[in-house]
Design a protein that fits this description.
Number of strands of chain B: 4
Strand order of the largest sheet of chain A: 12-13-14-9-15-16
Number of helices of chain B: 11
Distance between the termini of chain A: 71 Å
CATH class of the largest domain in chain A: Mainly Alpha
Shape of chain A: elongated
Shape of chain B: globular
Number of helices of chain A: 28
Number of strands of chain A: 16
Oligomer: heterodimer
Radius of gyration of chain B: 19 Å
Largest sheet of chain B: 2 strands, antiparallel
Order of helices and strands of chain B: HHHHEEEHHHHEHHH
CATH architecture of the largest domain in chain A: Orthogonal Bundle
Chain lengths: 690, 309
């Protein structure tokens, strides 16, 4: 987490060092956990800086520089695949775009005829005038390497957004196949436009970077240090992005796209952002790589490169920054050192035994086979990778486990959960003739309802009567066929889910949609997405405004979690998937509440809770009302509804069959029929009528 | 050649390619229809199929272009090679499902797809390392009988390949529509939970789906070899991508859609190659994939919505 994060006293439990936990996991937790992040970056830079002093072999340093280039690529792809969960199989294409961008603007490949247009560029030092005795001469591009590093990132990001936009609306699988296709056609295009790229022969004579008059030339050492600096920068960017509002929204999308959207995350925009930033990393690396090699050919950017990068991420740990760097270094080491050495041993063994097979065997060629095996084995047996994104959960102490549950301190003088003035005399939510059919089934039929501010409205009805569909229509997850939804007089019908959250309607889900592999704290922080503003740049630079916002959001989250007393507080750093069923329900409610809704929709909040827990939650829902939140809730437990609802609405076959106080509704014949079937009286009545 | 003759010739070529793509697309679409997974291993099951058929023919003594058969012996030989190849690739697909993918079924996110990429890569490299990187000549046991329409030529070979695809597709259609297993497949595709509740053995349905899809990919591999007279470790990638585009074009999860999409992609490839440029074929097909996904994500015949999560 961040340094500004408020640590509640409940979580400051000492690391469990009792019989149950050994010493080594505790160290491992620390190494991979919160405290280790900055340490990792520093260690990486220090060790990286010292290595060339120990090993002065030019070949090794060159391999090191290449390894760093691939580590940067893997870091970029990790933002797309690891953070946002988008499988990009054509990542090498963006690498190619960055490489060719610098290659073209710093070589003699493209030489347009000279005319006045180019003069301003000449003054800027971007082009040179190549005079010729018979004619106006030609243009030689001499764009600086240092300028091209960011420009390549922008060009690659542009292509990323261009090709991401049409497919990011679809299910993730389609992105995989479209990126696979894109990864295939970029080298084809490079081959087919020899005017720009010199085709299959490759672009030659790419200028070497110079720094204050010092030319990098063909030496490996300057490139090694430049690569190290770039890798360090991108590690920092990755870490900062991940632990920010943007990073949490990405992880939320990865874990559950629909829930993320229902918590106010604009998924298309954030996916595009991930895709664009990832492509940008690749563009910069392309420029670096081509400046080092001083040549670019289509073969350097084919599908196997993209697969290798995915192997690095899978091996190291998807979403884990340290893991990805480790994965990249292991694979580079495997390729350039281990397999070569092993091949020599195998050959020696072959000479020794006289077996022809071992004499001929070249293990370096089997690297791609090894890649395939790594992918399958890791996915099957260790999906979280060598360095998991998340440290193992520290167990609760015995005292925490056996503590008597306390109810939260909501009754005290806390501020209302939302800050907007609401007209108490007008309905907060007006539903007018809402309808939705699925094929021939009318899930919701001409439904109208007024909800007054500060009230609790219960919706009951048999299973399949359209209650959840009704919630989906209000929150924008399903588009209505007809009718209107007005919130405080404003039409919100058919808006996108994340916009509706912004307007002030939050919800929970009947079948629980938590972000399973994020901590409790992060889960609830996602709920603050619409009430915070930090963008990608702010997340990386972390100016004081962003730090303040993070701090305030953390406080807000902890304050909200305290509603549930000591149920959730000791577990804020645990992963949501480790929670009990009842605690998951509580967490969903907390996540919805921090979005500062004026209206909260609870879908069966007490389902799966025992009587004591139900009673506790009933109380807590009542308290929400005191804090100015209007509640609309679907509930099957009539005792709960009777106790706290100001108004009850009964749905059957998509229609409202009754509305009134709990008492009125319970004596309604239609309701009895819907719930209990026809009474003998009703059957007799029906028979008499026909 | 007159322009209509060129057109006719390219249509003949396109239908031949399309017959192959359709068979390959069926495997994608069936697996996707049942467990919503893009099976990248399918690319290279196709490639392995073309190698198996080549080895079977070599074992039978067919190596060069010299052995030409007619009538019943030709039919028997082709049926035998197809059967052996299809059973072998079918078993390969079933093994991949059972030991590679079953443990990951129901795992959300990218893990199952990444596993299929890994499996695909393993198949690819096993063939590359085992059989070498050079292009292999395929024997052609079919007589060189040809019909000429002006300058356009239709070979017996092409007619046989069309027939093979058609028979396999009709058999698949009958299987899915008429047999109990086929109905269990349809039920599983619609709602796995509900199918399980009414007694469908979903694991069995899934593994049989993989078997059939992979067997059809094997048949497509045989067709590739006999049509082009060569095979190579790298043929799976391009053909697989085109077949997948065919499946999306027809409507992923839709069996007749895959057949239609396959033939259309075959025609686009041959006509595009003729009237635009061969080197841009992949770019054209990729553009079609993107355009279909943007403007008609359910494909021509439609079914499952790709936007559902």
């Amino acid at each position: 987490m961040t340094e500004t994060q408020l640590q509640p006293s409940e979580t400051a439990a000492p690391p469990a060092m009792g019989r149950e936990t050994s010493f080594i996991p505790a160290i491992w937790n620390r190494a991979t956990g919160i405290a280790g992040r900055r340490g990792f970056l520093i260690a990486f830079l220090v060790i990286g800086a010292l290595l060339p002093l120990i090993d002065r072999n030019e070949g090794d340093i060159d391999a090191g520089a290449n390894a760093l280039a691939y580590a940067i690529l893997a870091l970029g792809l990790n933002i797309v695949v690891g953070f946002a969960g988008l499988l990009d199989l054509g990542y090498a294409a963006f690498f190619a775009i960055g490489a060719y961008a610098y290659g073209i603007f710093s070589s003699y490949q493209v030489q347009p005829e000279w005319w006045g247009f180019w003069e301003p560029f000449q003054w800027l030092g971007l082009v040179q005038h190549m005079t010729s005795p018979d004619g106006p001469g030609t243009v030689h591009f001499t764009v600086s390497f240092w300028l091209m590093l960011p420009i390549s990132a922008l060009i690659a990001a542009f292509f990323g957004v261009l090709f991401g936009a049409p497919t990011l609306r679809l299910k993730g699988d389609y992105l995989a196949i479209v990126t696979l296709g894109f990864g295939e056609i970029v080298p084809i295009v490079a081959r087919n436009v020899p005017y720009l790229t010199n085709g299959a022969a490759g672009l030659n004579g790419v200028a070497s970077p110079t720094l204050f008059g010092y030319s990098f030339g063909v030496q490996s050492l300057p490139f090694y240090y430049l690569g190290l600096a770039l890798a360090g920068l991108l590690i920092l960017i990755s870490l900062r992005l991940k632990n920010s509002r943007i990073g949490r929204a990405w992880l939320a999308i990865r874990e559950d796209e629909i829930a993320a959207e229902a918590m106010g995350v604009n998924r298309v925009k954030l996916k595009l952002l991930a895709f664009g930033i990832g492509a940008g990393f690749a563009g910069t690396t392309g420029t670096f790589y081509v400046a080092k090699l001083q040549t670019a050919a289509p073969e350097m950017f084919m599908f196997p490169v993209s697969v290798m990068l995915i192997v690095m991420i899978v091996l190291g740990g998807m979403g884990s920054v340290a893991g990805v760097v480790l994965g990249a270094l292991i694979l580079q080491l495997l390729q350039s050192v281990i397999l070569q050495d092993m091949t020599q041993w195998v050959h020696a063994f072959g000479e020794l035994t006289g077996i022809e097979f071992f004499k001929q065997l070249d293990l370096v060629q089997s690297i791609e086979l090894i890649f395939g095996i790594i992918l399958v084995v890791m996915m099957r047996f260790r999906r979280q990778g060598l360095v998991p994104e998340r440290a193992a959960v520290t167990a609760l102490t015995h005292a925490q486990q056996t503590a008597v549950p306390t109810r939260g301190a909501v009754a005290g003088g806390l501020a209302p959960l939302h800050r907007r003035p609401i007209d108490a005399n007008k309905p907060l939510l007006e539903i007018r003739g809402l309808s939705k059919s699925f094929g021939g089934i009318k899930a919701v039929r001409d439904f109208s309802l007024d909800v007054m501010p500060g009230s609790i409205v219960g919706i009951i009805g048999p299973n399949g009567s359209g209650k959840t569909t009704f919630f989906n229509l209000i929150t924008g997850l399903t588009k209505p066929d007809g009718g209107k939804v007005l919130l405080a007089g404003e039409d919100v019908t058919g808006l996108l889910p994340h916009v509706i959250v912004e307007r002030g309607i939050a919800r929970t889900f009947q079948n629980l949609r938590l972000f399973a592999n994020m901590t409790l704290l992060e889960n609830v922080l996602v709920g603050t997405h619409t009430r915070t503003t930090t963008g990608a740049i702010g997340a990386v630079l972390r100016p004081p405004r962003v730090r303040r916002e993070e701090g305030a959001a953390n406080e807000r989250v902890l304050e909200t979690l305290r509603i549930f007393g000591n149920r959730l507080m000791p577990r804020v750093q645990h992963l949501a998937r480790t929670l009990s069923y009842a605690n998951r329900r509580r967490l969903e409610i907390a996540r919805a509440l921090v979005s500062e809704p004026v209206l909260i929709l609870l879908d069966e909040p007490t389902a799966g809770m025992n009587p004591t827990e139900t009673l506790e939650l009933t109380d807590q829902i009542q308290h929400l009302k005191d804090r100015g939140v209007t509640v609309l809730m679907i509930e099957h437990k009539l005792a709960v509804v009777n106790q706290i609802a100001d108004k009850v609405v009964v749905l059957d076959h998509g229609e409202k069959i009754a509305e009134g106080t709990p008492k009125e509704v319970h004596s309604n014949k239609e309701v009895l029929r819907a719930y209990l079937g026809r009474s003998t009286d009703a059957v007799a009545e029906a028979a008499a009528a026909s | 050649m007159e322009s209509w003759e060129i057109l006719l010739q390219q249509v003949i070529n396109g239908v031949s390619l399309g017959a192959m793509y359709a068979l390959l697309a069926l495997g994608f679409t069936m697996v996707y229809g049942i467990i919503e997974l893009i099976n990248f291993a399918h690319f290279n099951i196709f490639m392995v199929g073309s190698f198996i058929a080549m080895w079977v023919m070599q074992l039978m003594g067919f190596t060069g272009q010299s052995h030409v058969l007619y009538g019943l012996p030709l039919t028997a030989m082709l049926v035998f090679v197809l059967c052996v190849t299809m059973v072998a690739t079918g078993v390969l697909g079933a093994l991949i499902e059972r030991f590679g993918l079953r443990a990951l079924r129901g795992v959300s996110g990218t893990a199952p797809m990444i596993t299929t990429i890994g499996l695909s890569y393993i198949l690819f490299n096993v063939i590359l390392l085992g059989a070498g990187a050079d292009t292999k000549n395929y024997s052609n046991p079919m007589p060189n009988i040809r019909w000429e329409f002006g300058d356009a030529v239709l070979h017996l070979r092409e007619l046989i390949l069309w027939g093979v695809s058609l028979v396999l597709m009709l058999a698949l259609h009958y299987f899915v529509r008429r047999t109990k297993m086929g109905k269990a497949m349809q039920a599983t595709a619609q709602d796995q939970e509900a199918a399980r509740m009414v007694g469908v053995d979903v694991d069995r349905v899934v593994i049989i789906t993989f078997f059939i899809g992979s067997a059809l990919a094997g048949a497509a591999g045989v067709i590739f070899g006999l049509y082009y007279n060569y095979t190579n470790f790298g043929i799976g990638y391009t053909a697989g991508l085109r077949a997948f585009t065919a499946a999306v074009l027809g409507g992923i999860g839709n069996i007749p859609g895959a057949m239609l999409g396959g033939v259309l992609i075959g025609l686009i490839e041959s006509l595009g190659g003729q009237y635009l440029a061969v080197r841009w074929t992949d770019v054209i097909i990729f553009s079609i994939l993107v355009l279909v996904l943007v403007f008609r994500p359910t494909g021509l015949l439609g079914r499952a919505s790709p936007t559902k999560s």
